[in-house]
Hints:
The protein has 173 residues and is mainly alpha-helical. The chain has helices at residues 3-19, 25-34, 43-54, 68-84, 92-100, 107-116, 127-155, 168-172.
Amino acid sequence: MKISDLQDMLRLIRQLLASAGGKGTGEIEEFSAALEPFRSLTPKQFTNELRKLTEQPKPAKTGAKLGPAEVDAVIQELRDLYERAGSPSTTQAEMTEKTEKLDRLQKKDVLRAAEAIGLQGMKNKTSAIISEEIRKRIEGRMGAAQRMSIIDVVVGSPEEDSTAMPQPAEILE
């Protein structure tokens, strides 16, 4: 069987739909036309071609070599990100971008990054687990800052809120 055979079947289906007054005949025609460059391929060959087109690039291998200066720069970026994680200007996209660089570090360097943000006792863990703990630590700090900003908005300060509950000392006076 070839893709040309599939096109013939699609043509028959389109004719059946058209004679029954069904919708979608134009879409079937478009699909069949899109298969034209693959007409001579078998379904298996066509599937392989589709996989090649839709395959996501593989992430860099763990332990991919970086120079010492690059490793130090990545660790410093992570430390800075951790320090700024409580700021509203720190975004999730920035956090993802910076922490993805952990995948390019060797285990000893991932350990250094963990220690740089205050994570201890990670020596017996794998690089992947340490990296995940670093991500969680930074996300946790970001989440805590966001929760505090929500609490500040909801509660507000008594000076600004005219409906604030009176303090116990005010009630006794």
